[in-house]
Amino acid sequence: MFSPEADARPDATEASAPSRPPVVLTPVAILANRKSGTNARDAEAIDRAMAVFGDDARLHHWDTEQDLGALADKAIAGGARTIIAAGGDGTAMAVAQAVLGKDVAFGVLPLGTFNYFARGLGLPEEASEAARALLAGTPHEIRIGTVDGQVFLNNASLGIYPRILKEREDVYARWGRRRLMAHWSVIRTFWRFQRPMRMRLTADGAVQDVRTPLLFVARSAYQLEIFGLEGAEAIHDDAFAVLVGRGETRAELFRLAWRLITRRMQPGRDYDLLAAKHLVVETAKPRMLVAFDGEKRPDRSPFTFHMEDRPLRLLLPGPRQEAPA
Hints:
Elements: H1 4-7, E1 28-33, H2 37-41, H3 45-53, E2 57-62, H4 68-77, E3 82-87, H5 89-99, E4 105-110, H6 116-120, H7 127-135, E5 138-142, E6 145-147, E7 150-152, E8 155-159, H8 160-175, H9 179-192, E9 197-203, E10 206-212, E11 214-218, H10 221-226, H11 232-236, E12 240-245, H12 250-261, E13 271-276, E14 278-283, E15 287-292, E16 295-300, E17 303-307, E18 312-316
Parallel strand pairs: 1-2, 1-3, 3-4
Antiparallel strand pairs: 5-18, 6-7, 6-17, 8-11, 8-15, 9-10, 9-14, 11-12, 12-13, 14-17, 15-16
């Protein structure tokens, strides 16, 4: 089954691929999040990318208060054949939601902090290099995951990770966005940990009751590989890799965190691994915080994870191009 992360890498290309008619990818509309990672730090990054895209590209700035779906529809109505999300994973997720199922190619210009989705595709992180790779790219239809209708490209989770994101947001607001503060938010969250969640999982019809500090639903084989976690096979089979963390105490959580950092996590000892194309999660608490691609929101149980039937026409990058002399 198609895996964008695998096919985007050089060793996955086929030397004798049949010739295909050229795909019209222009005009291009770039939807840029002003507050996203590189956009906020390097104001000239988007200008360098736009210089590569040329006259067939139009730049649209947006923020989280705007209706992104309406902005994407306006760009498509204006003739755009490719919509590119300029920002981080959260921006890519939001734009993917806006163009899902529509007859337009979707690309990502990595201008965020972590850029897991773009890195998994093999895109360069320098703006102009990424723009050249996108111009040489080819669209492929892929299936993506949703939780209660919300698209996510990398992962969604319940439990301690959404609480870490919330704590990090509070710490950043008080002390600024520093790496030390990010680590401190993890320590504070772990220290406040009281007990694991009780939940019932229905994975492709099979039911089991679990107690866990973290439920992690992955759709990025690249992200699992970074942290030495299993589950890539499920993702390549168009399913979710569902990781159910093990840990009853604060001490066990700190041990799990250390094993994650040192890439020594083991299934059966540190987490249980499930593969599912449809997952329903019922939690003992009626309302929980759910995280998806670095964003978060409170929502009501049960939580339904589903592989979306509508395709996303993902623009896979072409071979890396050298800048013109």
